[in-house]
Amino acid sequence: MDLYCRYGMLQKDIAALVNATEKTIGKWKEADNWELHRAAYTTTKDHELRRLYAQVADLNSAIEQQEPGRRYADSKQADILTKLASAIRAMETDAGVADTIDASIKLLEWLKVQKVNIQPLIDGKQSLHQLVTEQVDIYIKGLLK
């Protein structure tokens, strides 16, 4: 499922890779609802925010193209702008499941390439919690630079 959902591979390519028929992959796809899972990966918060901002920009452009002295939103446009602003504010301040998954994946990918010294953990001088906390702290500080 990961190959289809996360990496966007085609069913025929997955079938060849796992030595199965396309029909079998299709059955798996249907049974496990791969399309829904793929949407969760591809419909990100950033994508939706860009879409909302584009709608605001389009609406503002339409308002600016009105004749001078009438370049203001009518009640319908003002209502739409208010609703778009509210949706944007909610999305920018809410960390959903998709954001948590995305952040976790990025952290795990970063950890894969780090040379973490686990000897203190093995020797019992450091707990797993301390080691992970230390690495997450390093990761976050790197993002903030």
Offer a concise description of the structure.
The protein has 145 residues and is mostly helical. The chain is 74% helix and 0% strand. Helix 5 (45-64) packs antiparallel against helix 6 (75-93).
Would you kindly provide a written description of the structure presented here, covering whatever features stand out?
The protein is mainly α and 145 residues long. It folds into three domains: 2-42, no CATH class; 45-93; 97-144, no CATH class. The chain is 74% helix and 0% strand. It has helices spanning 2-5, 11-18, 22-31, 34-42, 45-64, 75-93, 97-112, 119-122, 128-144. Helix 2 (11-18) crosses helix 3 (22-31) and helix 5 (45-64) packs antiparallel against helix 6. The longest helix is centred in the middle third of the chain and has 20 residues, at 45-64. It is flat. The mean pLDDT is 87.
